[in-house]
Every structure is written in structure tokens, then in C-alpha cells.
Design brief:
- With 298 residues, the protein is of the alpha/beta class.
- It is 36% helix and 16% strand.
- It has a single domain, classed as Rossmann fold (3-Layer(aba) Sandwich), CATH 3.40.50.720.
- The strands form four sheets. It has a seven-stranded parallel sheet with strand order 3-2-1-4-5-7-11, sandwiched between helices. Strands 6-13 form a two-stranded parallel ribbon. Strands 8-10 form a two-stranded parallel sheet.
- Helix 3 links the parallel strand 4 and strand 5.
- The longest helix is centred in the last third of the chain and has 17 residues.
- The protein is globular.
């Protein structure tokens, strides 16, 4: 990232609610720019950059956590009733801060099933799954919050430690063939870097409130699995037909196969000018495998 970008964010303070896979990766990328970043956890951590927030047990962050905060990102999913845990507990607190920006990680599941057709931010939302309906409700709550919010709709997320390779190593991978079924994906590094890139666009006339972050190449799951085995120099197991595999899938896993869509990144990459680090799964998997090999050599 250019030096002017580093300088414009260097003295900012970020709070990230949800210190899971995406939240921690994003936090580390922002810290690399010299920013202060705190992440939430449901339990006390040894990490000094972590604080406790648990909406279920009404454990709220201590007041000093918010001192000097300029940016907030929420990665926390809705509760079972479809309410946003951060807004339901901390809306008034956030409203009283001098925030420059608030981000919310949502899902492309809000578009529902497009039967393999492309979908963009201009298309209507028609969530099929209950979890996606809850996400859409949270999106609306954030938009109505009067906070300077930006919504990021994400497809399947993968990255170091969370890729097809891990399923292959654990021998719990299911190779399923379903004709004409595709999934969109995004490497976690592109989530983090797209957000950082867009932060520089806040004061511009082309600010967009809702943005898809996806790579250029939606494809079948079996194509990704086959390429992963090829990179490992292993033979892929014989695929199962989807009708046979349905008996082995959990309800939540099965629900992902009920939707078929290609998520467009035209707004992000063409209109707003972001350049993907990993344009497709081949680039992303190559990066993941490199990290795995480096760890094994230590």
C-alpha cells in the first residue's frame, strides 16, 4: 500500500468486534500500517490487544477501550432472533463517539438463489436461508443507525489455516459433484486489503455504502478440490453424486448447496479500482500452501 495511505491511517484507532478468523487477519493488516487495533473476545485473553465483549452474558467492554476510537468494524453474526449484538448493546455508546467510519461484514447470502446467474449490489435481495435473513436485518439496522457505516457482502471465505488443504489433511473432505453448481469465494487477505483501500475513498464522491468483496472466478467446489489435490501431488478420491452426498451432509452444509450464484465484484474492482491480491482460487490456494510448507520447515 502506498505511503500516503499509511500516513492517512497511522494515528487512527480501530476496534474490531469479533476476533475470529477474519477479524484477527484484518486486525493484523491494519496494525502493519501503524494503527492501534483492539479486538473483542468472549473470554479473557492473554493478548493485551484483546478485550472482552459477550452480548449473551451482558459483559460489555470497559469504558477506556473506546477512548480515542476513530474506526469500528463488526464481524459478529446476528443472534438467534436476528438482532445485531453490537448495536443492541452498544449503539448509544458508538453514537457518542467521534467515529470516522464503521464497517460491517455481511454475506452474499442475502441475494438468495440466482440459479447460477451473476448478482451485483444493484440486484434485489431475496435471502433464502434464515441465517441470511438475519444478516439482512442486521444490515438494515446498521444502515438505520445514523453511524457512518459501510456494508461488505462476502461469499465463502478462505485463507491460511482455513482452506481445502486442511480438510484434505484431516481426511474429512467430501468430494461432491453437482452439475452446474458454482460458488463464489474470497481470500481473507483481499477482505482486509479491500477494506483498507476503501477507507481511503471515504471522503470522495464515489463512496458506496454496500460493496461485494469477491474474486473474479466463481467455480464449482469439485474444481477447487481437484486443484488442491494436484498441488499436493495426491490423487483425488472418486466424487460422489450430490443425491448420494445429501445423506451425509449436515443441515447447515446442505443449505449451502441449495443456493447457486455468481457474485460480481465489478463495483469494487472496476468502478472503485481495487486490485485483487488473489484473482482466483488458484492464486489463493498457492499462497495457502506456501504458508503451510514454510510452517513445516520451521
Amino acid at each position: 500500500m502506498a505511503n500516503f495511505a499509511r500516513n492517512s491511517l497511522k494515528k487512527k484507532k480501530f476496534i474490531i468486534f469479533g476476533g475470529g478468523f477474519s477479524g484477527q487477519f484484518i486486525a493484523n493488516e491494519i496494525r502493519n500500517l501503524g494503527c492501534e487495533v483492539l479486538t473483542s473476545s468472549r473470554q479473557i485473553q492473554t493478548n493485551a490487544k484483546s478485550f472482552v465483549f459477550d452480548s449473551l452474558s451482558s459483559v460489555l467492554p470497559p469504558e477506556h477501550i473506546f477512548d480515542g476510537t476513530t474506526h469500528v468494524l463488526s464481524c459478529i453474526p446476528p443472534d438467534k432472533d436476528g438482532n445485531d449484538p453490537v448495536l443492541s448493546r452498544l449503539h448509544n455508546k458508538l453514537k457518542n463517539l467521534d467515529l470516522e467510519w464503521v464497517g460491517y461484514l455481511s454475506t452474499t447470502g442475502v441475494y438468495g438463489n440466482t440459479f447460477g446467474e451473476w448478482v451485483s449490489e444493484k440486484d434485489p435481495v431475496k435471502p433464502l436461508q434464515n441465517r441470511s435473513k438475519r444478516r439482512l436485518r442486521c444490515e438494515k439496522s446498521w444502515i438505520d443507525s445514523n453511524l457512518p457505516v459501510q456494508i461488505f457482502r462476502l461469499p465463502g471465505i478462505y485463507g491460511p489455516g482455513r482452506s481445502t488443504f486442511e480438510s484434505i489433511f484431516k481426511k474429512n473432505i467430501k468430494v461432491i459433484h453437482k452439475p452446474n453448481q458454482v460458488f463464489s469465494r474470497i481470500h481473507v487477505a483481499d477482505i482486509a486489503n479491500a477494506i483498507l483501500y476503501l477507507l481511503l475513498e471515504i471522503n470522495n464522491d464515489n463512496f458506496k455504502q454496500i460493496i461485494n468483496i469477491a474474486d473474479n472466478h466463481p467455480t464449482s467446489q469439485i474444481e477447487v478440490i481437484e486443484h488442491s489435490y494436484k498441488l499436493l501431488g495426491l490423487k483425488m478420491p472418486k466424487p460422489m453424486n450430490f443425491d448420494d452426498a445429501k445423506k451425509l451432509l449436515s443441515p447447515i452444509a446442505l443449505s449451502f448447496w441449495e443456493e447457486n450464484r455468481r457474485v460480481s465484484n465489478t463495483l469494487l474492482c472496476k468502478d472503485l479500482g481495487y486490485k485483487l491480491i488473489h484473482k482466483n482460487y488458484k492464486s489463493g490456494l498457492k499462497s495457502c500452501l506456501k504458508i503451510i510448507k514454510e510452517k513445516n520447515l520451521r
